[in-house]
Amino acid sequence: MQLYQADSSGRVQLIGEASNDHTAPGRDLRVQSGDAFDVSAERVQTDFTQETLPAPRRGLPNRQRATAAYRVTISNAKAEPVTVDVREARYGVWKIVESSVAPEKLSATEQRFRLVVPAGGDVTLTYTVQMES
């Protein structure tokens, strides 16, 4: 697969290549064509706590709850705004308990935050996720 985009003069330029063995008809395909040097991200875990919860019934083990907070800063050096999807994967029992941008649950294991980053600017996403086991 080859990806093309028009440059500032309107000429079509190759911007990346990727390959995929097979995708079922009607399914989404994710293509990684390379790294963008003018759009960057920094993800930092800002907090983490863990607590023991009582067992749901006698004879069962205690449960654990972990709460983690994150800050993701997306910077855009382009001359036009860009839309960036921040995707987070979690397994087990989890939920987003606080977020600066409305999350979209894509599946039982994946969450997406869609951010519009202005030209020459940056946007910061903050969120807290709670996980139980």
Describe this structure in words.
Strand 7 and strand 8 form a beta hairpin. It is elongated, with a radius of gyration of 20 Å. A 4-stranded antiparallel beta sheet has the order 3-4-9-6, with no helix packed on it. Strands 5-8-7 form a 3-stranded antiparallel beta sheet, with no helix packed on it. Strands 1-2 form a two-stranded antiparallel sheet. The mean pLDDT is 86. It is an all-beta fold and 133 residues long. It contains no helices and 9 strands.
Number of helices: 0
Low-confidence stretches: none
Task: State the helicity in percent bands.
Answer: under 10%
For the largest beta sheet, what order do the strands appear in spatially? 3-4-9-6
Largest sheet: 4 strands, antiparallel
Shape: elongated
Radius of gyration over all CA atoms, rounded? 20 Å
Proportion in β-strands = over 45%
Distance between the amino and carboxyl termini: 41 Å
User: How many DSSP-defined strands?
Assistant: 9
Helical/strand content category: mainly beta
Question: Helices and strands, in N-to-C order?
Answer: EEEEEEEEE
What's the average pLDDT?
A: 86
